[in-house]
Amino acid sequence: MTSTSDPGKISLFWVLQISGWFLYGVIYYLIYYSYKDLDLASTIGFAVTYMVAFLVTIVMRKIYQKLDYQHRSILNVSGIVILTSVVFAVIWIYLDRFVSYPIYGIEKFQKALDKITLRNNISQIYWNSFILFTWSALYFLINFWRQWNEQLARTEKAELLAHSAQLQMLRYQLNPHFLFNSLNSIRALILEDQTKARDMVTELAELLRYSLVSKNNGDVPFSEEITAIKHYFAIEEKRYEENLQVSFEIDPLAEEYPIPSFLVHPLVENAVKYGMKTSSMPLKIKIQAKIKDNKLSIFVRNSGTWLSDDAEGRSRPAGTGTGLKNVRERLENRFPGKYTLTTSEEEGCVVIKISISRDVEGNHV
Q1: Helix/strand/coil (H, E, C) string of 9-36?
Q2: Which among 6, 24, 230, 301 could disulfide-bond with 286, CB atoms 3.0 to 4.6 Å apart, if both were Cys?
Q3: In terms of Cα–Cα distance, which of 297, 197, 317, 203 is closest to 250?
Q4: Residue 179 placed within a domain
């Protein structure tokens, strides 16, 4: 049912109703009467005919508004529309006769009354029914078009909200993970070196600040992600001291490239966690980023080996299992079909590579 409480719908109806009948009247006049020498009375009578049609269709609209056509079959609605069009075609004719004929004078009005029978007006009823049926069809088509657009907008909004909720869910899987590890590192140093423990608290505070500031922003410049990673490494370097060596090689063109916040962080965590179990000391980690052929490539390298289940029963060290899977899901959400995530071993190092395509103007494609 068409809502009358929507100002947009009311405005559209009246714009189309007024302009539609006005244009139809003008076109009809130009085709059939422009070459005739009409007097004032005939011109006014012609205008009254279309004013009556204007009012008749307003009443029809009220009937259609109360018709729950969305829950009726097409045949049922079509039958109602045809019947309504015929009935109001008759009403249009007789109402027009009684309103407009007096304008022509008493004598002509009396002659018109003598001819005002269904038999004498059958062709006019047919024509008016066709006009009103066409008006009704346009009315329903426009309403269906508006409802389809509204439904499409609601669907897109729902998908966007679901998409946002999924991304937030994935982010919240990460936050407790790195927070837990960071607090464990701080706890380990509190009794050993309070100065280092205080420094780690400062680094953790900066990391949490980044998390809070960026939580409502889907993307952040890659440079901000690198800054957060440096805060994380500052914590881990105080814990592992000379057993951890970190280096960065970041292409300046990549620094402003937008990526989902905390996208690279779980890869860095895994590099530390698993590297410490498989690498000879010191553990060497290198973060690289470059842009080539309109593609951002991010590399996280750590010395050591890739652990996975094999025929001999060896398995990866215990962990939450969300890191790599989380990154892949976030990439799929943000860049569906436009990214690659690969893992490999090269020259005694585990290498995780993320590639994101973009167009020549710098937008993701």
Answers
A1: HHHHHHHHHHHHHHHHHHHHHHHHCCCC
A2: 301
A3: 297
A4: no
In a shared domain, residues 227 and 138: no
How many other β-carbons are positioned within 10 Å of the β-carbon of residue 169?
A: 11
Last residue of a domain, one of 133, 155, 177: 155
Give domain status of residue 15, yes or no.
yes
Q: Verify that 95 and 199 share a domain, yes or no.
A: no
Residue 197 has pLDDT above 60, yes or no: yes
Q: Within this chain, do residues 120 and 244 fall inside the same structural domain, yes or no?
A: no
- Does 363 fall in a domain? no
95: CB partners within 8 A, 6+ apart: 52, 56
Comparing C-alpha atoms, which of 326, 324, 334 is closest to residue 357? 334
Q: What is the pTM of this model?
A: 0.50
- The values of phi and psi at residue 141, to 5°, are -60, -45
User: What's the pLDDT tens digit per position in 262-302?
Assistant: 788 888 888 988 898 899 999 999 999 999 888 899 999 99
Count of domains forming the chain: 2
The pLDDT tens digits for 107-157 are 555 555 555 555 667 888 888 899 999 999 999 888 888 888 888 877 776
Asked if 265 and 178 touch (Cβ cutoff 8 Å), the reply is yes
Asked whether residue 204 falls in the same domain as residue 121, the answer is no
132: left (phi over 0), alpha (psi -120 to 50) or beta: alpha
H-only helix segments in 119-262: 122-190, 194-214, 222-240
φ, ψ dihedrals at 202, nearest 5°: -65, -45
Q: Is residue 186 part of a domain?
A: no
Q: How many CA atoms lie within 13 A of 356 on its CB side?
A: 26
